[in-house]
Write a structure and sequence with these properties.
mainly beta; four-stranded antiparallel β-sheet; 60% strand
């Protein structure tokens, strides 16, 4: 059984016991349980349920494992012959969650 869930404007295909890296959620602490209500699709071996746009009553629960930062991305700007160059680095914050349950809400 799997589901497609909208989390912070991004769609994730999840099933139980999956580990996800979602965009940072400052209000969640390690060990907290998060519930995502924007379930777009639920499918098992025989049935596929599609929401318009969401499935009423369906939700996905996950436990926060840790807060991590992604790889560094370097942004370098340069204008030749003008003595202009700028170098910036960026590391995106993510929250690692483990999906604990899927509910179709029927």
């Amino acid at each position: 059984m799997f589901a497609v869930v909208n989390i912070s404007g991004k769609q994730f295909r999840v099933s139980e016991e999956d580990l996800l890296y979602i965009p940072y959620r400052a209000d969640a602490k390690e060990g907290d349980t998060l519930q995502f209500d924007e379930v777009l699709l639920i499918a098992d071996q025989e049935n596929v349920t599609l929401g318009h746009p969401h499935i009423e009553g369906a939700h996905v629960s996950g436990e926060v494992i840790q807060h991590v930062r992604g790889d560094k991305i370097l942004v370098f700007k340069k204008k030749r012959r003008k003595r202009y160059k700028v170098k910036h680095g960026h590391r995106q914050r993510y929250t690692q969650i483990k999906i604990s349950s899927l509910s179709a809400g029927e």
